[in-house]
């Protein structure tokens, strides 16, 4: 059974090989398993209400997957979606299509919660978006799978990614030194995964060889914070769900600095995401940030063009 622990703590799903070392190099700065930490908002033990129903229904392969991006706001989106009575989701990241594919679809299905007719099964594993094998593998499971990508300004995303690694390995080099192959010439190290993950247009090209764009939804990570109900409205429409999650479900928690749920799934209490979500980022040299913005600009414009959506990062 998958626990909500991260892979460093040996969750069963994380035991397999990592097939695509997408961004080799600077491994020390990547974190041993660049994945989500154990987080209280990813409960796998069913609530009393869902336990009552757990004998009924059956386990299904997911019809919709949040495939990325790392540090985009994927946990927030999944936790918000779980409020919907027609959505059932696995709490921990299964990492099936990148790390455990050899375990087979029956193993994968067994991780899923039971669902009743009309309910959608979902999971989120943000590394799928940058895994070369993932599009073909997901399409082989079902070419009708709906894919959701939460995207965020690639520069803040990179800093967020670095901040996560820094929290696990405080001795890594500075963000500034990892960014450049050669600081004097300003040549950016695109092999550093923190940088590479943000070249969204490149990754998207691989998905579009296997899925039509109408089967993909791009959620703005920024709007998920500034207007969670608005983004959730788009997601519910995309999934063919009744718009049940509305602004009435959210409140802005001033201490946390983020929107939180008035009532989480299977609970009557307010719920914010855990401490690992919404970390304070280190201050990064302005010139380095400027250079990174300049680097990402053409890729961002391409991405806006491909998705038909200006995310406003430039
Ligand atoms: N409501 C709410 N509460 C807390 N945090 C929120 C929320 N909505 C979006 N976010 C942003 O989510 C960022 C983490 O993204 P992910 O969950 O995709 O990270 S991970 O890849 O699964 O580790 C996290 O990044 P950091 O701020 O860098 O910690 C948050 O900015």
Name the features.
five-stranded parallel sheet, two-stranded antiparallel sheet, binds 3'-phosphate-adenosine-5'-phosphate sulfate, disordered N terminus, 314 residues, alpha/beta, signal-anchor
Helix/strand layout:
Elements: H1 48-53, E1 58-59, E2 64-68, H2 74-81, E3 87-89, H3 96-99, H4 105-111, E4 114-115, E5 120-124, H5 134-141, E6 146-151, H6 154-168, H7 175-179, E7 180-182, E8 187-188, H8 193-196, H9 200-208, E9 216-220, H10 221-226, H11 228-238, E10 250-253, E11 258-261, H12 286-307
Parallel strand pairs: 2-5, 2-6, 3-5, 6-9
Antiparallel strand pairs: 1-4, 7-8, 10-11
The site of 3'-phosphate-adenosine-5'-phosphate sulfate has 19 residues, from helix 2, helix 6, helix 10 and strand 11.
Region (Disordered): 13-57
Membrane topology: Single-pass type II membrane protein
Binding site for 3'-phosphoadenylyl sulfate: 71-75, 152, 160, 277-281
Sheet bearing the most strands, described?
5 strands, parallel
Radius of gyration (CA) equals 19 Å
Element pattern in H and E:
HEEHEHHEEHEHHEEHHEHHEEH
Q: What share of the residues lie within helices?
A: 25-40%
* Low-confidence residue ranges: 1-25, 27-34, 38-43
Spatial shape: globular
Spatial separation of the terminal alpha carbons: 43 Å
Mean pLDDT: 88
Please work out how many helical segments DSSP would assign.
12
Ligands in the model, by name, code or SMILES, are:
3'-phosphate-adenosine-5'-phosphate sulfate
Strand composition percent: 5-15%
Number of strands: 11
Biggest sheet strand line-up: 3-5-2-6-9
Structural class: alpha/beta
């Amino acid at each position: 059974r998958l626990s909500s622990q991260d892979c460093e703590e040996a969750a069963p799903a994380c035991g397999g090989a990592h097939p695509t070392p997408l961004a080799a190099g600077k491994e020390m700065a990547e974190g041993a398993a660049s994945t989500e930490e154990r987080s209280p908002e990813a409960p796998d033990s069913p609530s009393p209400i869902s336990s009552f129903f757990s004998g009924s229904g059956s386990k299904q392969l997911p019809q919709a997957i949040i495939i990325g991006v790392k540090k985009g706001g994927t946990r927030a989106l999944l936790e918000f979606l779980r409020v919907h009575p027609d959505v059932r989701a696995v709490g921990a990241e299964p990492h099936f299509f990148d790390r455990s594919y050899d375990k087979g679809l029956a193993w994968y299905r067994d991780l899923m919660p039971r669902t009743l007719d009309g309910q959608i099964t979902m999971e989120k594993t943000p590394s799928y978006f940058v895994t070369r094998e993932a599009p073909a593998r997901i399409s082989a499971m079902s070419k009708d799978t709906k894919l959701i990508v939460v995207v965020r300004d690639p520069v803040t995303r990179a800093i967020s990614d670095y901040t996560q690694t820094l929290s696990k390995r405080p001795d890594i080099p500075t963000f500034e030194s990892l960014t450049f192959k050669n600081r004097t010439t300003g040549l950016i190290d695109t092999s550093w995964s923190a940088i590479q993950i943000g070249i969204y247009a490149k990754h998207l090209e691989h998905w579009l060889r296997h899925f039509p764009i109408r089967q993909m939804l791009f959620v703005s990570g920024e709007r998920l914070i500034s207007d969670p109900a608005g983004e959730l409205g788009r997601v519910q429409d995309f999934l063919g769900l009744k718009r049940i999650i509305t602004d009435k479900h959210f409140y802005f928690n001033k201490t946390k600095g983020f929107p939180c749920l008035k009532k989480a799934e299977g609970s009557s209490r307010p719920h914010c995401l855990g401490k690992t979500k919404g970390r304070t980022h280190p201050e990064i040299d302005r010139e380095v940030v400027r250079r990174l913005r300049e680097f990402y600009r053409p890729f961002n414009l391409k991405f806006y063009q491909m998705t038909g959506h200006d995310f406003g990062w430039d």
